[in-house]
UniProtKB/TrEMBL annotation:
Belongs to the acetylglutamate kinase family. LysZ subfamily. The lineage of its organism: Bacteria, Thermotogati, Deinococcota, Deinococci, Deinococcales. The record marks K5, K229 as: Transition state stabilizer. It is found in: Cytoplasm. Substrate binds at R64, N168. This is [LysW]-aminoadipate kinase. It comes from the Bacteria. It comes from Deinococcus taklimakanensis. Keywords: Amino-acid biosynthesis, ATP-binding, Cytoplasm, Kinase, Lysine biosynthesis, Nucleotide-binding, Transferase.
Amino acid sequence: MIIVKVGGSAGIDYDAVCADLAARWKAGDRFILVHGGSGETNRVAEALGHPPRFVTSPSGYTSRFTDRETLEIFEMVYCGKMNKGIVERLQRLGVNAVGLSGLDGRIFEGRHKDSVRVVENGKTKVLRGDHTGTVERVNTDLLTLLLHAGYLPVLTPPAASYEGVAINVDGDRAAAALAVALRADALLLLSNVPGLLRAYPDESSLIGHIPAPDVEQYLEFAQDRMKKKVLGAAEAVQGGVRRVVFGDARAGEPITAALAGAGTVVS
């Protein structure tokens, strides 16, 4: 069992990811695909007159502030255009994919965080009305049912709160929680860079290997959204996942390349 998370930033080749995934699925490998959609969500939000607001926590992590209107735009893009676009690609390649959000069947479940502490202009403040959280439980029964019936699950945020409210959760950390819950052999975090770079954006500064016990020490090299990927990798290896790979989803055979060790391997 391999969990693949593909990001939503510019430059990602979803056709290449899906073609590689379909070939390996038909050869007998078993996957669950988790995807993002941040770039398209930003574009749609701007077009609808409700531009995205990104905030930075006191610990330096950047995230989308998700009020109710933002959540509805988020669902429209992630659960609609992005999810069904990937499912359609896989269906055309002969893979019987099923697209679901973490809200469906409470596949991803966690605590709703209504307020968030942020740093703006050097001052810490509290913003209320947020719809975010962190995945704390995974409905492995539903996923196992789908896998055993021959379906490839294609999953996306949002998750469900314990009260049944939709909450925006980080896709990389959700994929890590999924990998731990299913005792996956590997977690692949694919994005629009070749891996973790020692001197971003210099791609020649790729860090090829990180010893699993030391992964959090490499947070200093992570820029912007890569911080959440490193955090997800740390949570995955702490939870028993033997190998995490930060891989490149821009061309070629991204899954095959990552499994062969291209990118940054945490093990």
